[in-house]
Amino acid sequence: MTPKQTWSDKLRRYRSQKSAEYAQAILATPKRAQLYSAIPYPGVVMIMGDIRTGKTGLAHEIAGQMHSRRNLPAMLHIPRLTEQQRKRLQRLTPSWMKVVNKRNQWKDRSVVIYDEAAQSAHARRSQSGDAMELDDMLAIAGQREQLILFISHYSRKLDLNVCTAVHRIIWKRPTYAHQLWERDEMADFTSKAYDFFRNIKGSVAQKKACLVLDMEKFAFLQCNNKLPPWWTDRLSRIFKEMQIQNNRREVIPRSLKGKINRKSIEKEEYGQNTIIRKT
User: N or C: which end of the chain has fewer CB within 10 A?
Assistant: First the structure.
């Protein structure tokens, strides 16, 4: 006589089934797709990968396709951007792309490119006022018809709320270190991305390739991207210069303002930036 199946037995079978589905998604060959069809609108996308692999260029190409197909304007959001830097960038970008450094400048029905997202959405600042404001904006991105593109080297730098909100994750070529030091929840995915790019022959082919994880269907896609017409080496160098300057700039988070002992201060590494803390 077959023993009656208990709820615990059903739960074990359910978990086994989900484990098999997870393994299949990781091990299956990614389906080929066009870049535009792989991007949700509205939605939240995280773009990750090593330095100089084309993450920012990819975000600009996505914005360009959204503008040509849906007539969407773009907001190029760069934290702590000076007015001089903003004007310098604005001259090199299309008229429908506005360079901003404040979130209240994001328009409804637009593409937002959040470059160097870890500078103001860092995992260590998850309880700061800025992080909570960003969390609120992600929650209503759908109602505001926004496509938000976060750019970072790897997810461990980013606030967990950003990682949870994403609909797609796109990799440009990561390094072995990226998969080694990733968040535990992301480690398998980044390992797949590392193997995916390692199996592509030729640096040019690697530069064009993207690996996309659809978090709604839980499936991997592969596609290629090209750089938009306005993208130049000069624009790329300016982005790099600004990143270096911002990384060196001393920043006092709002949560620490008014709490500094001026007689005794100590500099401490705070993610990519340096803060002054009370001692």
Answer: N
Question: Are the C-beta atoms of residues 151 and 47 closer than 8 Å to each other?
Answer: yes
Q: Determine the average pLDDT of the residues in 207-218.
A: 96
Residue 82 and residue 180 share a domain: yes
- How would you classify residue 76: left for phi > 0, otherwise alpha for psi between -120 and 50, otherwise beta? beta
| Strand 74-77 with 273-278, pairing | unpaired
Global pTM exceeds 0.85: no
pLDDT tens-digit readout, 128-146:
556 667 777 788 888 999 9
Same domain, 183 and 271: no
Residue 13 lies in a domain: no
157: its two tokens:
């730098």
